[in-house]
Amino acid sequence: xxxxxxxxxxxxxxxxxxxxxxxxxxxxxxxxxxxxxxxxxxxxxxxxxxxxxxxxxxxxxxxxxxxxxxxxxxxxxxxxxxxxxxxxxxxxxxxxxxxxxxxxxxxxxxxxxxxxxxxxxxxxxxxxxxxxxxxxxxxxxxxxxxxxxxxxxxxxxxxxxxxxxxxxxxxxxxxxxxxxxxxxxxxxxxxxxxxxxxxxxxxxxxxxxxxxx
Length: 213
Fold this sequence. Notes:
- The chain is 54% helix and 14% strand.
- By secondary structure, the protein is an alpha/beta fold.
- It folds into 2 domains: 2-143, Response regulator (Rossmann fold), CATH 3.40.50; 153-207, Orthogonal Bundle (Arc Repressor Mutant, subunit A), CATH 1.10.10.
- Strands 2-1-3-4-5-6 form a 6-stranded parallel sheet, with helices on both faces.
- Strand 3 (50-53), helix 3 and strand 4 (77-82) form a beta-alpha-beta unit.
- The radius of gyration is 17 Å and the shape is globular.
């Protein structure tokens, strides 16, 4: 039995994807996650075989969730299932531990093959562009970090949550840190990115897939 976790913030898409994947004999959807933080928690708890993961999700972006799931569930394979066809985003997803990348526009052609490959611990990258990105990443990934690569993981979390409209107090409660520490991470992120306002941080978060436009 292949156990699959679906992580996407759109309930209708999750339910449709569940019905589609459960139509395959031997595949079972063990859980659904509406945001990145819940995806990490469920992956840690359930240790699924495959996570089908969107990139633009609330509270914790898909990119951040990929890295945390790799640590929490090393045997779990992660398939990115997204509308984002940007080469930079693909590179970063691969760098953080995704082993497959399928565009939502290719669902009928690629999704079944991708889940099957990852369940057997084989990588799967749909289309020539994705393969080209992977080859470039493998040659010299460290010399081509994605935008915002200089931020720490916690700084990226704070930037995303600020971009989603959460207050310092709410962020502090969510991350189990003090509001003063939130201020520190915000200031550090702004300094590293050369931004001067919250609006600049929001624009950065949208450009780099940390928040939906």
